[in-house]
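Thread: "does anyone have the structure for this chain?"

Original post by V.I.:
We have the sequence but no experimental structure in hand. Need at least a predicted one for the grant figures.
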Amino acid sequence: MKRIFEIDPWKVVTHEFKPEEKRLQESMTSIGNEYMGMRGMFEETYSGDTHKGIYLGGVWYPDKTRVGWWKNGYPEYFGKVINAVDFTKVDIKLNGSSVDLAKDEFSDFELALDMKKGILNRSFIVEKDGQKFRLNFERFVSVAQKELYASKITVENLNDTEANVEIKSYIDADVFNEDANYDEKFWNVLAQNVAETHMSLTAQTIPNNFGTPQFTTEMLADHVTDLRPMAAETTEKSVVNIFAGQVAAGQTVAFEKRVIVVTSRDYDTQEALTQATQTLSQKQAEKSFEELKTEQAAGWAKRWEKADVEISGNAESQQGIRFNLFQLFSTYYGDDARLNIGPKGFTGEKYGGATYWDTEAFAVPLYLALADESVTKNLLKYRYDQLAGAYHNAQQQGLKGALYPMVTFNGIECHNEWEITFEEIHRNGTIAYAIYNYTRYTGDEEYATHNGFDVLVGIARFWADRVHYSKRKGQYMIHGVTGPNEYENNVNNNWYTNMLAKWCLNYANEIADKVSAEKLAQLDLGEAERQKWHEIADNMYLPEDQELGIFVQHDTFLDKDLTPVKDLPEGQLPLNQNWSWDKILRSPYIKQADVLQGIYYFVEDFTPEQKEKNFDFYEPLTVHESSLSPSIHSVLAADLHKEDKAFEMYSRTARLDLDNYNNDTEDGLHITSMTGSWLAIVQGFAGMRVIDGELEFAPFLPKEWDGYKFRINFRGRLLSIEVDKTGSKIELLKGEPLKIKLNGEETELTVK
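Reply from O.Q.:
Generated one for you, tokens below.
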């Protein structure tokens, strides 16, 4: 655990700059608007260690899969997000010397991410040859005009004499990825244009041999400044505008850089890209920087009005939930059905910027409650549109049906670690679960009985082929899998995987009863195949230990040395940074909820005794070294009235990155797991459930808080839920009257 930012309910702020923590600071101050985003790196020259990263939604590259031992069925490429052309770059010279905080003497440093308005601010006083200057930086990516990046730099001369200020502004395609094979670079420049106060550059991703699209981007920068335009230059990979002037003693000079960014995802030709940048640039030029900032603040205000969770009496908890919601909505707000939610969002390159099962498992419940139903429908449509790729993935393994990828940009599996890619097949069940979750929450069965049914049938056919029948036990089994606990690979009969396969087969049959005869015929789904699904589901082997009263994680789990985590010698955690992989695989330690993930999905289907015995057995063996783990344990602990444990796990998921719990936040934030803090409050502390179409709450107030309040959408209604030391209050703010249960008591809500 490492806390380098101050506690503030609406800001991520520090007054210290430590070069050794710069990458961590960069991750924590990332900004985005779904269309694009960037780490909190410095705009100006910095010669020390840094991870500069700018990423564009849906822009990626298929890097060749490199493995020592090729296995049949391996994906041909590993998809990765690529560092975009750098349009933020500037070089600030004061009396001829570049500002560089890796070398310069400076004071009064402040770095502050304003989460309320979506604006990143930085300021400091720098000393150059005995003279002092105050520099202030503001920047944001606009939620009002998605293609717009806007920044403003002010330089104040704190001296008694005049000073020379020069600013070079770049659009630079000479960028690299941290994880590139052999320092490969990914952009070829197609066109450059420079004038006195503006410049543009068009670049295309380098060719690939896998038939995936090349992406073209065009960036046009306009400058508004008190400085005089001095020169405009081009190099092989960049365009540059240079501005300079004299600043009198005690005076301030301002420099604005506004960049329009467009990509070939939205425009078919290079000519269309150019036309778009010019049109959009003219639009932003009609407004002052203050007007653009006002639009930005207003856009975020609308988001916070719907989604804010107010916590009284605990500023750490308040900052945590707001930070997570801010970064989630900076990554995805449902405006583009072609996009999804990468585990790192726009904050780093780890996990390749691709889509994982995290979205369906953890993000869908949040977006169902905090956004319009269309947002979740877009997430479901994303998977429907990639159904052909899922069939391809299964065929690569010689299997029938559809296998949704572990990692993807386009539906084709593009991850190259066999034990994860082709053994962690439980993600297929979560794709189906998201359809169920949407249907249960909204009451809308149309998707499940139409396009969603195509997905369910593909998944059911996969499970029906992937199981095998054990004559010895007279049951169906699934061998050679990896469960959610990735600290065990290639196990047999992972309870969670088998349970989800059984549920998927039953759910597909349940929906089949509701679809039209034409739909069944279209998918060639007959009674014999459906009966086979029933037979497999009815005879699925689910490992269980009657004496312990638990579901067994997999066939040989109980043969391990089941020493709890608390009894490990000091200094062993995190295991993934201290133990060999061999030692981890042989250990009983659980990276994230596995059996408990399945209980969380269907929490109302298990008895209190089943939930408690499994929680008490598995939680002490869990190291929570996946960012996805604490929230599930928090919700289940709350369900079991283990309020201290629920709050402990909430604090961990809410402040996972703010306090760098897993010692890896410098690589980027854990975006998809940020849903966990909201899940812990709403499904955990407030006990929200949808059972048989009815909304239920069973709230409690953590003793560390004075109260909490949030809003949710539910079936055309807007509700406010408030919990404090006097009790719980639920109000219907919009919509038709609604019957709910509060602490088991039926009540009807009407708008007052």
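V.I.: this helps a lot. The longest strand covers residues 252-263.
O.Q.: and The chain has a mean pLDDT of 95.
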